[in-house]
Amino acid sequence: MARLARRALDERRYALVEAGTGTGKTLAYLLPAILSGRRVVVSTATKTLQEQIVHKDLPLLRQVSGLDFEATVMKGRANYLCLSRLDQAEEDPHFSLPSREDIKAFKLVQQWARTTAVGDKAELDLPESLSLWRPLSATSETCSGQRCPRHEECFVTRMRKRAAESDLVIVNHHLFFADLALRTATRPEARGRGAEVIPGYEAVIFDEAHALEDVATEYFGVVASDYRVGDLIHDAERVLGEEADALGVTRRLDRLEIVTREFFDVVGKMLPKAGDPTLRLTRGQTQGLSGPAESVKEVLLAVRAALSQSEVVEVQALARRCKEITDDLEFLVAAGETGFVYWAEQRSRARYLRAAPIDVAGELKQRLYSQTDSLVFTSATLAAQGRLDFVKKRLGLTDPETGQDAYTVDTLVLDSPFDYRSQAALYTPVHLPEASDPAFVEAAAEEILALCAITGGRAFALFTSLRNMNAAHRLLKDRLPYRVLLQGDRPKQALIDDFKERPSVLFAAQSFWEGVDVPGEALSLVIIDKLPFASPADPVVAARIDQLKTKGADAFGEYQVPQAALALRQGFGRLIRTRRDRGIVAVLDRRLTKKAYGTVFLESLPDCPRSEKREVIGDWWIGKLRARR
Questions:
Q1: Of the ranges 275-289, 380-394, 415-429, which one carries the lowest mean pLDDT score?
Q2: Which residues pair with 137 in a beta bridge?
Q3: Does 189 have pLDDT greater than 60?
Q4: Which of 69, 204, 249, 539 is most exposed, with minimal Cβ within 10 Å?
Q5: Is 560 in contact with 545 (CB distance < 8 Å)?
Q6: Which residues have C-beta within 8 Å of that of residue 557, sequence separation ≥ 6?
Q7: Cβ contact 256:300 at 8 Å
Q8: For the CA atoms of 173, 179, 182, 184, what is the dihedral angle to 10 degrees?
Q9: From the CB of residue 386, how many other CB atoms can be counted at a distance below 10 Å?
Q10: pLDDT score of 186
């Protein structure tokens, strides 16, 4: 793998490598990156891997290689304190501190701001439930750039300077694609929306590359929401204060609040009353919103005109935001880009209009591959049935017409260092109801109870939906004789720390399927309720299925099944993290063995003993316990 990474960086090629946990893949690409003499961006999907690279792998490389290099971690702006906004909050008598916790936290931030070198909120132990951080954080919307009086002290500016002088820049996929979308905006009205964050680079290494398609889809899309407009109104009132009346803005902001609510009320009425509040929109439906949208755009333009009279930097930034929201709303309502899918949704109390590219492969070719000649893609889960064809196609590395490589791509699938035949067993019961049967959740809960008795808890129960997770938790929370943890009750890391302390059962959904590392006996059982097919009700998934069907392709076999197989591998991968780990993976969905396509899933999983009988799996586990003694 190191040789392939070195070749990609030295000879301006691409490399696509599957390398599982325990192979040392981070060292295999970090050393060639350092030796290349080029500025290389390393992008990860999860904070866990980012922390591993910074605090474990890079110090190890420095120690054993003797190489001298500079590396900088970059995070999104919202992770950093904005000194200018802190100044404004300290001077604003109306700055809201509604609780004792907020007052205590604000004092903590003030003290910390005087001593911190980087301004990263990760240095603070602030409860996630506090809303205090948001109005103090750095954002592109409120940033006045070089005209800010605190520009030279700005933590984002300092971070960028450090990165510009570094050999390695460590980011996450969200920051990378937010930055790339900014650099390569194809819509004229979207260009120039603030400065790029990541300094110029010559090569990129994507670890956890299985997540790229989803993240790129999000950041190459367009969104408008009542929440976004509400933020603008709130910030305008805070920045302008008494000057709002002088500029004639107060009445217009009041009017903007009214017409925005009216517009998104119309959007809200289009959404399903039951189930998932999401609706894929036709062009006719979006254009049917043009009347109320015009009212919002008119008021936004009036607010912008009033704000543009001011020469104050913060006020000019507000005027720019008015223009950006106007442009995005116009794009969404026109729905004129045929390569995009459009939809409306409600999340918590906010209503959204969204659009996203159906074919991310085309966007990647235009925005990334045409600009960067050295790329390395790696992950523990890239291969379906041992082949990389699916991910190459989804990432646009093959020609869609011929199926041949569109670029010079070196590929490699590394064997795992783990002995799965000895370390893991797969339980595939067939006696449970079909996954679509209303009786499935109750039957699955009973199976979870019986399996946990085998391993003494120490289990992740992973679900494909929050609804089933919560239902199973309700059925079992008072029946399991172990500590029971539930995703959402506490921050993710706090739940993992609690899980490691004593035998527990953790009920979790999507966010625990990857980027979670619990080595040793603390995790001995991973239970997966259903095969993790992406919901065909998801507008992006539905649009991609339709696109493939239009081309005469088998959307289920060529897209939905391999995508779900890779997701199942992610869930399976939570179990075995070291050569000493032992445990059971249980997949409660009978389709795994009863449907023909189940073969794709089974052939994508590690080769280990498998049984449909719980007693056999129980005996296997007892044998492992005896062998340890």
A1: 275-289
A2: 81
A3: no
A4: 69
A5: yes
A6: 597
A7: yes
A8: -80
A9: 9
A10: 63
Last residue of a domain, one of 394, 413, 432: 413
Q: Scan for tokens 């460590």, then name that residue.
A: 170
Instruction: Identify the three-state secondary structure at position 343.
Output: strand
For the chain, give me the number of helices (H) and strands (E)?
A: 27, 18
- pLDDT tens digits for range 217-235: 999 999 999 999 999 998 8
Beta-ladder partners of 508: 462
Residues 288 and 374 in one domain: no
- Among the residue ranges 251-265, 394-408, 528-542, the one predicted with the least confidence is 394-408
Q: How confident is the model at residue 251, as a pLDDT? A: 92
User: Is the same domain home to 293 and 327?
Assistant: yes
Element (H, E) at 274: none
> Token pair of 288, please?
């049917």
Q: For residue 53, what are its two tokens?
A: 């690279």
Shared-domain flag, residues 436 and 570: yes
Contact 206, 375 (CB under 8 A): yes
* Strand residue runs (E) in 406-476: 409-413, 424-427, 459-462
Inter-residue contact 502 to 537 (CB < 8 Å) = no
- What is the mean predicted confidence (pLDDT) over 57-74? 94
Q: Quick one: which H or E segment has residue 92?
A: none
Number of neighbours of residue 512 by Cβ within 10 angstroms? 23
- Residue 616 sits in the same domain as residue 539: yes
Measured CA distances, 168 to 13, 200, 379, 433 (Å): 19, 12, 19, 51
Tell me the CA distances in angstroms from 414 to 87, 496, 549, 579, one per residue in order.
53, 29, 34, 16
| CA dist 184 → 82, 206, 220, 323 (Å) | 26, 19, 10, 19
Residues 70 and 97 in one domain: no
Q: What backbone phi and psi angles, to 5 degrees, belong to 203? A: -155, 155
How many Å apart are CA 590 and CA 505, to the nearest integer? 23
Query: 3-state DSSP call for residue 188?
Result: helix
Domain interval for residue 255: 222-356
Quickly count: other Cβ atoms within 10 Å of residue 281's Cβ: 23
* C-alpha to C-alpha distance for 218 and 220, rounded to whole angstroms: 6
Whether 629 has a pLDDT exceeding 80, the answer reads: no
pLDDT on residue 492: 87
Mean pLDDT value of segment 250-273: 95
